Amino acid sequence: MSSPIQRIKLFEDVANHIIARIQNEVWAEKLPPEDQLAEEFDVSRSTVREAVRSLQLAGILRSKPGSGTFVSETAPLILGTRELAKIMQTPEGLRDLVQTRYVLEPQLAELAAREATEEELQRLFGIVERMREKHDRMSLMALGHAFHMELSKLAHNRVLAGLYQSVANQLKGLRVLDSLTLEIYLQGIEEHQAIAEAVALRDPQLAGQRMREHLQKDYGAYLPQAAKTE
């Protein structure tokens, strides 16, 4: 079966060419004038304006009246994030995503054991209690996701939590856990309870280990052999 043809608008093609030149540092600080861009890309000036406007809205370019169009200070971060998102959306990136989660989440559990407040711990245990009330696969899947997202916040490190949440949401979108059965989700309730208890005990090493064991069970097929035998 052939892949569907991806149609791209002309201004989007121009925007992609501009991005490529920014990434290659051809235009590291300032873009050429509009008429020069139109000539270089063999398009109308209105198409160039539309491309530039789209990149301004994305935070990649900024305009100074009377001075021209400049590459924004945040462009490297925005473009880096876009490239990472592309990788994460591919089937080939699935193993990398799983392994990234396996690196990040035990560390988050360890930090949570040190940093979580009593109120935050009660919310975490509350999710586990809600799991015990459910007996269908979709509800347990959603609550499991909520548990891990909540745990990431308990580490009190916004950068690590943001990285983890991005990876976890992407994995959820790829539906990597669709193969897990209701029985596995029901067994997972006690695993989540054990993780929460280790965090509540303020035992970072135990919290990290219990998280690794939980991830090995769910994601073992995607992890290196060394990780599975830790």
Could you characterize the architecture of this molecule?
- This protein is mainly alpha-helical and 230 residues long.
- The protein folds into two domains: 10-77, Winged helix-like DNA-binding domain superfamily/Winged helix DNA-binding domain (Arc Repressor Mutant, subunit A); 89-228, Up-down Bundle (Four Helix Bundle (Hemerythrin (Met), subunit A)).
- The protein has helices at residues 10-23, 34-41, 45-57, 75-88, 94-115, 118-132, 137-154, 158-174, 182-200, 204-219, 225-228; strands at 61-64, 68-71.
- It has a two-stranded antiparallel ribbon with strand order 1-2.
- Strand 1 and strand 2 form a beta hairpin.
- Helix 1 packs across helix 3 (45-57) and helix 5 runs antiparallel to helix 10 (204-219).
